[in-house]
Amino acid sequence: MEAQAPRRANRSTVLAHVLTHGPVTRTAIGQETDLSPATVSRIVEVLLDEGLLTETDGTPTTTRGRRATRVAIAAGRGVVCGVDVGGSNVRLVVADLAATPLVGRTVPTPADYDAPRLARWLADLIRQTVGDNLARLDCVAVGLPGAVRQHDRTVCNAPNLPQVEDPDFLRLLEKRLAVGVEVDNDSNYALLGELRFGAARDAQTAVMFTIGAGLGAGVAIERRLFRGRSGMVGEFGHLPAGPLGGALEQIISGHGILARARDLGLPFDNAADVFHSTDSRLVPVKQYVEQALLIILTAAVVAYEPEVIVLGGGISHALKPDLGRLGSRLREIVPATAAAVQSAELGDLSGALGAVVAALHSAYGRLGLAEADLAHVPQSDALAGCDLGALSATVIA
Amino acid sequence: MEAQAPRRANRSTVLAHVLTHGPVTRTAIGQETDLSPATVSRIVEVLLDEGLLTETDGTPTTTRGRRATRVAIAAGRGVVCGVDVGGSNVRLVVADLAATPLVGRTVPTPADYDAPRLARWLADLIRQTVGDNLARLDCVAVGLPGAVRQHDRTVCNAPNLPQVEDPDFLRLLEKRLAVGVEVDNDSNYALLGELRFGAARDAQTAVMFTIGAGLGAGVAIERRLFRGRSGMVGEFGHLPAGPLGGALEQIISGHGILARARDLGLPFDNAADVFHSTDSRLVPVKQYVEQALLIILTAAVVAYEPEVIVLGGGISHALKPDLGRLGSRLREIVPATAAAVQSAELGDLSGALGAVVAALHSAYGRLGLAEADLAHVPQSDALAGCDLGALSATVIA
DNA sequence: TCTATTTCCGTTCAGGGTGAAAGTATTACC
DNA sequence: GGTAATACTTTCACCCTGAACGGAAATAGA
What we know:
The structure is a homodimer. Chain A has 13 helices and 15 strands.
């Protein structure tokens, strides 16, 4: 423990408090963090000098006495970009340091590009979306449809967009962007988004399943992402609990549902349509999926005891009417369950907004925020009054 | 961050280092913890004054110069008792503060006693086993065959010894012992034992399944026990993946195996005997159990990505020849698996020794060890040269 | 036996950090 | 304009660390 350790810790505490509570007075910081006014003043002074914080006036004039000046993060000092690369669409959200979204875009994925070309295309798309803010770009976070090992940043198990497994993809992307690039599984980022801004806003421990072409999963324990070494944490789709010991993912995924409908001579293009259809021949298919889903939900409950399980991805909308029944059946199996089963509040933007959060964490870390304080930033109402629809407007590049 | 915070942190660091590295010189502490000699000296002085540490002479005289004096934990300053209460046997181990076992006992559980009587019986058994060391008894940890909620210390789901669910049991036990009593699930303690001294000694993340009358589980992440709120973390026996959506625990547990053998007209008394039998009619039963076990192992792998999965409990011995095959099949299902499947190294004493560790953690905490440093104490070779057989000698009380 | 050397241990001291309290600035109310 | 209330800043005593210094113990060698 060197001499400057307490200073760093207190700096992180103050910064975290400002980031989570928005514009706030020095006095309030001191009271709510148990730091002395002197310490708060000293640290705020440093942060102001560095340009990380700005003073805002505008305290309500309800009481007499000297007016408190409030400080807030210098939001415009930098921007970050969160990217959700899916098999069919790429979604981008650019946000400032206060996590206020500035621009959002959805662009069809050029799935036929090879790795280098895809990297260049994505880098140019990001640069174009960031636009004038490019000089202030702090960090880019990219969610990929595959398993990501953090310690060597390798990607595997990405059948829906195999190019991203090529190490060149990341290398070229980072090179062309000339800023740090964070990478993770898209489901992990989707969970991070819901954990900050969405359905898991108030949960300490949460699990998210994204049911798209495949079945993805993310796990958060004590408000922090829990990633294993190989990035397969929560992938209960591997459980050999299907008929003949097959994997559950073959049942509960877009591919699986479409295949099963085809077996009945009912070709669908879209798995969600299977659920919306009232064709009675599909009832066993739906029951089958529901049973598989129940096994996976049970696994999540006994594995992590989450407060909430969020379902996202393409067909989660179609499952919405069934959530209540799923919850009841879950509690029959595990009576002590406290987990609520909900659908994603951020819709298709969970992943991109979660990537924004990850990018912000990286940027905040460089500003001196300690790892432990990252779990509470940015503030969860940063999206209040934000038009999610406008952010996800589709643009044909 | 108040002024004495660094002092406390450094004290914890020094204490943890002495506890993990045994007798050690002040210089070595400084070098290996990056603390300055001055800081180490000051803190060691305080700890010596408090009687927590003792100076031992006897540095090897290999080098010349002033002999370094080594300090070690004052092992005899206190003792703890770890208790593993099972449906058929109670196992006790008394150890000193250096985790050296002093006495061990195994006594048949008087399963017909009601809660108050069982509490009195157990308290007296503990007092008797601790013997002359009673005045120095610091803490008792009791592992129970049921789910334990830590925040209100309630016990539920203990079909094999329902008395312990009665709140009076714990209350009376603690009152009669007049020391702090830690409680947890017996599988959690078994894992703690293996994690410190046994098969998971070198693992950061580990899972343990105890297959006895029922199926219990414990999970450790980053060398710390992961307990959910209601204590059912890792209980994948609840998965409704059996035939007709039944729970897996009904297949893979002593009760389940015996029932299935009975269905075939083969009454056994002991589930392990089913496995040792060469009767060809039992082959499907064994395959059935193995398939269920495989689902549970897969769930553990994708849930936590453990480095090792430890199997313990009555029939784990019988499963030993199958471990290799289980591991191979596991890697077929989840190729990225790094988990080794092993049987408990501490045998029947995992639980009692894990309880010793838990009791030591509580005692160490009162000595000033920070929560984060508990993950590495006591030292893993504390049992070296210790006769486990003698410790588990059965005594008819 | 006596001295030099080596290798530690313990202490002193400067520097940086915090919190309590005193001091200053700013505002509202009379 | 005076007074009270509130927000922030400065001062000061104290705590903690790390580097440097001096002391102590044991061996090696004469």
